[in-house]
Structures are given as structure tokens and as C-alpha cells.
TrEMBL record:
Protein name (record): DUF998 domain-containing protein
Keywords from the named record: Membrane, Transmembrane, Transmembrane helix
Organism placement in taxonomy: Bacteria, Bacillati, Actinomycetota, Actinomycetes, Pseudonocardiales
A Pfam family it matches: DUF998
Transmembrane feature ranges: 44-64, 71-89, 118-138
Protein origin, superkingdom: Bacteria
């Protein structure tokens, strides 16, 4: 179960990196990962959200069985469920993607986009929260300090990402990847750490 969580987390990052760099009209620097769920190849990222969310939920169960603090497993289960919801409720076309979409963020948004925003907020709040819990409960000074530092960094970068969204920054996608890549890497390492020797 822990390997399922680790592999699903790594696959999520690999998939959006490869798909983002090869997608016509998509800029990994400007566009958020969620925008990959739009357009003719949108099913790739939708499946990516679903597989990662389910894999994290399985991994969270594995952590609980392995003896991790129940609060850590519970918050990661919320994280997984929020990723699934992000796939079920895609964002609206905007920021010039897919090609032909409004160049900025429209004043009005669909119901599904609002649900996507709620799911995204849960994703970007639950992961650093899990890091805080890990810093307080994991054995080993190195993991506790590392998780604490990672939590502070991820909270700060998530705030910066939210500001970039409000400003419709040209570097929105890059800043978001500054949250996702280190955050998901920490999560994959957490799962692997708890695999029985």
C-alpha cells in the first residue's frame, strides 16, 4: 500500500511535466497544472488527478497500518480525496488555455470551477498541514526538522501561488510547480520511509 502511494505520487509529477512540455499552446511557466485537464488531451490530466488521489488514499491507509499517527493518515486521506475532486471538477478555460480561451480570468465562473477551487484549496492546505503533523510525530530528528522546514516553505510558496493567481501572473505555473514538485517529493519519500525493511 505504501509503494502504491509513492509510485502514484511520482507518476503524477512525471505525467504533468511530460504532458505540459508537449502540449500545443500550453506554457508550464504560465499555466497551472489543472489547465492540462482541458482541451483534446484533457483526459490525460484528469486520469492523473484520479490515479494520484486514489494512490495517496491507499498510501495513507498503509501509513496508518504501519503505525503512523492517525492524524497524519487522516490529513493525507483528505489530500487524496481533494485530488480526486480536482479531476472530477475541472477548471474553466482561462488564461489563454486551451487556445481561444479568454486571456485573463473571467469575472464569472461555472459551478464546477468553483468546486475545483475548493478542492484545490484543500490540496494546498492539507499537504503542509500533513508536514506539520509529521514534524510533531515522526521518529528521527532529521525527519522532524526536515518536515517542519518543508511545511514553512510550502505554506509560503502556496501563499505566493495564490497571489500570482490574483495577479494573473505570467509565472503562475512556475510558482505552482514550486509547490507541487517539492511537496509531492516529500510525500513520496514519506511513504517509502514507512515501507517495512
Amino acid at each position: 500500500m505504501l509503494w502504491v502511494g509513492a509510485v502514484g505520487t511520482v507518476l503524477f509529477v512525471m505525467a504533468f511535466i511530460v504532458d505540459g512540455w508537449s502540449r500545443p499552446g500550453y506554457s508550464p511557466v504560465r499555466h497551472p497544472v489543472s489547465a492540462l485537464a482541458l482541451g483534446s488531451r484533457g483526459a490525460v490530466q484528469t486520469v492523473n488527478f484520479l490515479q494520484c488521489g486514489c494512490a495517496v488514499a491507499v498510501g495513507a491507509t498503509g501509513l496508518l497500518i504501519a503505525g503512523a499517527h492517525p492524524a497524519l493518515a487522516a490529513v493525507l486521506a483528505v489530500f487524496g480525496a481533494a485530488l480526486v475532486a480536482s479531476g472530477v471538477f475541472p477548471m474553466d478555460p482561462m488564461l489563454g488555455y486551451p487556445p481561444g480561451a479568454p486571456d485573463g480570468v473571467p469575472d464569472e465562473s461555472s459551478h464546477r470551477h468553483r468546486l475545483h477551487d475548493i478542492a484545490g484549496a484543500a490540496v494546498f492546505l492539507s499537504l503542509p498541514t500533513a508536514m506539520v503533523i509529521a514534524a510533531l510525530t515522526l521518529p528521527g530528528t532529521g525527519w522532524r526538522i526536515g518536515s517542519g522546514v518543508a511545511a514553512v516553505a510550502l505554506f509560503a510558496t502556496s501563499v505566493r501561488f495564490a497571489r500570482c493567481w490574483e495577479e494573473e501572473s505570467a509565472h503562475l505555473g512556475l510558482v505552482q510547480r514550486g509547490v507541487i514538485v517539492p511537496g509531492w517529493s516529500w510525500l513520496a519519500a514519506l511513504f517509502v520511509l514507512h515501507v517495512p525493511a
